[in-house]
Amino acid sequence: MELFEQGLVRIVDGLGRAEVSPIEVVRHFLARIEAAADLGAFVEVTAERALAQATGLGDLPADAPPLWGVPLADKDLVARAGVPTRYGSRANADFVPTESDPLALALDRLGSVSLGKTNTPEFGLTGYTESAVAPAARNPWEPGTGAGGSSGGAAVAVAAGLLPAAPASDGGGSIRIPAATVGVVGLKPSRGRLPFANGLESPGGLSTAGPIARSVEDAAHLLDALVGSAPHHYATRAPGDEAFTAALRRDPGRLRIGATLVTPWDGWTDTTLDPRARAAYERAAAILGSAGHALDEADWRPEGYPEMFATLWRASAARIPVADRDLDRVESLTAWLAREGRALSAERVIGAYQAAAAFERRTIAAFAPFDAVLTPALALSPQAVGWFSSADPEENFARQCSYAPHTSFVNVAGLPAITVPITSEAGERPWSVQLVGRPGGEAAILQLAAQLEDARGDLPWPAPRH
């Protein structure tokens, strides 16, 4: 079995047993990245820097951190000192930060080796990864289609075996949408779960960092590492709590699971499910029922969501670091969003945040009877590169909502959620489902996702390209 096929946990174990060295692992994945450059997973590859960092790690220390020697990469929304950080935008084409963001510093403390920057849309504003500053991120299963977004490059890198796992971020589905698009695991933690990049510092508490991985176990390992990477001043999990990888080794017992096809976009845009998405959802429900869990329909009737979320989306774009006079340097959709957001009255923005808080309370109350709630991951199959890019910004937004109507509400509610591939027809891209947990309920959804994964069996890799 080649290194890229082993996954994160096995590579960590091999490094820990000195069966392979950091320099060997880094060289292996750098070669994979070079051979798959046409997939658009990376916008910057820092090969020399990575090889020097791997060499500098020396021999395995007795107190090796949990990601010692593991090759990872930064999403191109995360600043790393000395490395070009473009935020997916021509406006930052020449920007090289002198200081690293907390997530990059945490990954350094954890012992990982950065191979560069993964592809993201401009300022991470869209659920597809097609920008004017880099080639589109392409689905390795169907290269004529896109990879979703905004963590499209990270998801492609994991799906194609260019990284063993990837840190990413999710403000409306930006981990789960691309993970489901390319058939890997994507986990958005609860708001406040991590000691940094946890949503508490973002407008509306929407965006949090989290893992993309080939397996549920690998996702749990990366989440454990991120949770333990810094002091917990305000995280929802205290030091000393059970590790998520340990929770996977426990039988979860009989859990109560809600199931729903309802989305907050119903009636506002077309949220019709592709028959294969419905089949994956129904298969997941059957597997969980066979495992002894109680499944009931979730009585959930979201109201007033589209206007509220559209306002939050515009308001978030208002904060991009580009002045009004320089908006001709960004893409037309970004410029429109920024102008719209900056024209919003304080009353309307505050009203949207209040509506979001009320939506959070209602959603948590509706889901309270359940240990987890099952939904489809995506409504549609991967779309051709360019499909989202309508000249009409409203139509662009509607297409994004039609493609992935089940994700953004989780960010507004601050809940944890995981997407996991459930079907694996030979030679075909897997279809995924989503499990939404209670606040701080990552362990339960990881356990359920692992049961789905076990019932599914091993996933194939995309058709050989190298």
Quick take:
The protein has 466 residues and is α/β, with parallel strands linked by helices. The chain is globular, with a radius of gyration of 21 Å.
Oligomer: single chain
Strand order, biggest sheet?
4-6-5-10-11-9-7-8
Low-confidence stretches: none
Radius of gyration: 21 Å
Alpha plus pi helix count: 15
Class inferred from helices and paired strands: alpha/beta
What form results from the Cα inertia axes? globular
Please characterize this protein's 3D structure.
This protein has 466 residues and is α/β, with parallel strands linked by helices. 37% of the residues lie in helices and 12% in strands. The protein has 15 helices and eleven strands. It has helices spanning 3-16, 22-35, 47-56, 102-109, 152-159, 176-182, 216-227, 244-247, 275-290, 305-317, 332-343, 346-367, 393-403, 408-413, 442-456; strands spanning 42-45, 71-75, 113-118, 165-170, 185-188, 208-213, 256-259, 294-297, 372-376, 417-421, 432-437. It has an eight-stranded mixed beta sheet with strand order 4-6-5-10-11-9-7-8, with helices on both faces. Strands 1-3-2 form a three-stranded mixed beta sheet. Helix 9 (275-290) links the parallel strand 7 and strand 8 (294-297). Helix 1 (3-16) packs antiparallel against helix 2, helix 2 runs antiparallel to helix 3 (47-56) and helix 10 (305-317) packs across helix 12 (346-367). The radius of gyration is 21 Å and the shape is globular. The model has no long low-confidence stretch (mean pLDDT 95).
